[in-house]
Amino acid sequence: MAEILDNIIDNLNNDRLTTALKLCEQNKDEKIEHIISNIKGVILFKQKNYKLAKTEFVKSINKDKKFIDPYKNLFKVHLKLKNFKSAILNALNVIELDNTENPLSFFNLALAYDLDENFEKAIEIYKKIEKSEFKEKKILFNNLAKCYLSTENINEAENYYLKALEIDQNDKIVINNLLIFYLRLGNSNKSEKFYNKAKALDLNYLEFRLNESEYFLFKGDFEKAIKILNSIILETKNYFAYKKLAKIYSMMNDNKKAIEIIEEALTIYPNKKDLKVNRGIIYLTEGDFDKGWEFYEYRKSIVNDESFENIKIWKGENLTDSNLLVTCEQGMGDVLQFSKFLMNLSPLCKKIDFCLYDKLIPIYKKKINNINICKKSEIVKNNYDYRISLGSLNKFFYKENNFLSSELLNFKNDQTKKHSSILDNKKKNIGLIWSGNFFGPKEPFRSIELKNFDKLLKLNANYYSFQNEIWDRDKEFFKKSNIVDYSKKKFSEIISIIQNLDLVISTDTFFLHLSCICNKETWGLIPFNADWRWYDYYKFNPYKTLKIYKQKNYNNWDAVIQLIQEDLKIKFDI
Fold first, then answer.
1. Residue 264: exposed, middle, or buried by beta-carbon count in 10 A (0-12, 13-18, 19+)?
2. Which residues is 154 bridged to in the sheet?
3. Contacts of 357 (CB under 8 A, 6+ apart)
4. pLDDT per residue over 228-260, tens digit each?
5. Where are the alpha helices (H) located in 271-347, listed in sequence order?
6. Of the candidates 493, 366, 500, 341, the residue with the CA atom closest to the CA atom of residue 430
7. Among the listed ranges 405-414, 471-480, 482-491, which one has the minimum average pLDDT value?
8. Rounded (to 5) percent helix, strand, coil in the chain
9. Could you tell me the pLDDT band of residue 439, with boundaries at 50, 70 and 90?
10. By C-alpha distance, which of 538, 176, 540 is closest to 550?
11. Residue-wise burial string across 300-311, b where 16 or more C-beta atoms lie within 10 A, e elsewhere
12. Does the pLDDT of residue 510 top 90, yes or no?
């Protein structure tokens, strides 16, 4: 028995895979069948025949449930097949069978959670390994940094990237991660530092070249960014290069060229859903709604929602006797804007349960007509005939010019009166929101650096901010400004404050939508490359109280702020 196995393993280790596989097939010894099946799986794995490899590993497990090797190998197969939930189960099986508390086993489990985008769980396990004797601390810290970044914890992300760098000052993966991290933060000095470092280490490294395109985009040199991405596409047909190139042309409002790039990418990557979503967004921007809504359905926020996958999706069927579940997805501004379509849906249904983000529950009425506002924990899955994502209601109702959003909100008169007496009414009271979520779509270009409002803030008025995220670039200026910070107020209080203001000035954020739904006069600062909802769609779905100030040149807010300042002086004589 030992001789047969030694012979097979010798051929396997020397990459004589066909010979090794033939020797496995010749085995007649039932006592080692579980080992042979596992080895066959390894051979097939090396031959990149992952599905057959998986079959052999499962056979091995069925023959000996306590044999740990096939569980470990199945983990690798499921990573290759991108079946991360199965990889998690394999990793848990390995930990259960291996009583030694092996840090590598826990690392693999954390990695599977990481790849499955359960970042909180991944962080929990990675942190546990940090205290162990795990040898690959550099990889561990790098992974932790990426997870923290995905959970929007910028400080911890930076902390762990720098910890990884301490271990190896010349690791090109970590250095490139820091380069793109600081570019995303808009930190010019540190971006420059890590760009030069990454370039010196390996200027032909694919990740660096992709990051270099972002670097030149950050500096406003579109031509160089495009040239780099075109060369990558010519050489490698890289998926991310296509995405970045299409994004640049879209930012330049050259939709024709952006479409060209996406269409070419789709011939190579026909199953990439985000390419289809990007194509759909251009359709929507151009007013081709039929095609736009079709592609919009590929968006990640609904494709990955497995919580309610057993409920049939509503596609326009008669709902007279049906209970419908509407699920919340995308950002909170989207929720505010699109929830008005529940009022269109209401007469068609027997009952609607709207599953809302917990944070927004207090500002919505608990019940209106046959619409119930629910937390996810309150949903009983077998109570529904159909389900639909909130954003998907657009394709049914976007032309109906609905102004009923405010009917869903919970306005509290006592709170409104309270804040009426708190605000200083000797001057005009103005809400000012200059930036949104740092990780939001089209950031950082739809936000404005606060110092650009310096002249406006010197006018004789009171300014109030509700945004709970102050970007690093704005913190110092914000501290020295005369802006009253209401970021710690609950949304229900903010509604009452908004009702007592004379005006709200906001970039494209949640608070712009909230102010408009509160029927407060609002001046919206919209970027040159605006979201699709500010083009033809807005003609069907305008806000009565919104005045739009749109950029005329990419990433230049000077003219917009100058016009705002002039209009403020005229409107309030200040």
1. middle
2. none
3. 328, 332, 335
4. 999 999 999 999 999 999 999 988 889 999 999
5. 273-285, 289-296, 300-303, 332-338, 341-345
6. 500
7. 405-414
8. 60, 10, 30
9. confident
10. 538
11. ebbeeeeebeeb
12. yes
- Residue 326 is which amino acid? V
Q: Which of 194-198, 236-240, 251-255, 400-404 is predicted with the least confidence, judged by mean pLDDT?
A: 400-404
Bridge partners for 523 per DSSP: 505, 547
Give the model's pLDDT for residue 306: 65
Cβ atoms within 10 Å, residue 351: 18
Q: What is the pLDDT of residues 76-116, one digit of tens each?
A: 999 999 999 999 999 999 999 987 789 999 999 999 999 99
Contacts of 203 (CB under 8 A, 6+ apart): 209
Examine the pLDDT at 6 and tell me if it is beyond 90.
no
162 touches 155 (CB < 8 A): no
Q: What angle do CA 128, 133, 136 make, to 5 degrees?
A: 90
Do 338 and 392 touch, CB atoms closer than 8 A? no
Strand 386-389: give its sheet, edge to edge. 367-368, 371-374, 351-355, 323-327, 386-389
The two tokens of residue 30 are: 């039932």
Paired tokens of 346 = 């209401």
Rounded to the nearest 10 degrees, what angle do helices 172-185 and 137-150 cross at?
Answer: 20
Concatenating the DSSP letter of every residue in 198-214 gives HHHH-TT-HHHHHHHHH
Instruction: Report the distance separating Cα 93 and Cα 226, nearest Å.
Output: 47
Task: Give, as one character, the DSSP assignment of residue 376.
Answer: G
What string of H, E and C letters represents the secondary structure of 125-193?
Answer: HHHHHHCCCCCCHHHHHHHHHHHHHHCCCHHHHHHHHHHHHHHCCCCHHHHHHHHHHHHHHCCHHHHHH
Q: Is the distance from CB of 23 to CB of 40 less than 8 angstroms?
A: no
* CA dist 558 → 549, 552, 562 (Å): 12, 10, 6
CA 394 and chain centroid, separation: 21
Cα torsion through 329, 437, 521, 552, rounded to 10 = -110
Helices and strands (H, E) in the chain, number of each type: 29, 11
DSSP label at 548?
Answer: E
Alpha carbon 194 to its chain centroid, in Å, reads 25
Evaluate the omega torsion of the peptide bond into residue 444 and state whether it is cis, within 30 degrees of 0. yes
DSSP 8-state class, residue 64? -
Structure token pair of residue 467: 């945004």
What is the chain's length? 574
Q: Say if CB 254 and CB 246 are below 8 A apart.
A: no
Please, which residues bridge with residue 526 across strands? 550
**Cβ-based burial of 149 (10 A; exposed 0-12, middle 13-18, buried ≥19):** buried
**Beta-bridge mates of residue 355:** 327, 374
Q: Which helix (H) or strand (E) holds 247?
A: helix 239-251
CA angle, 337 as apex, 438 and 507 as ends, to 5°?
40
Contact 528, 551 (CB under 8 A): yes
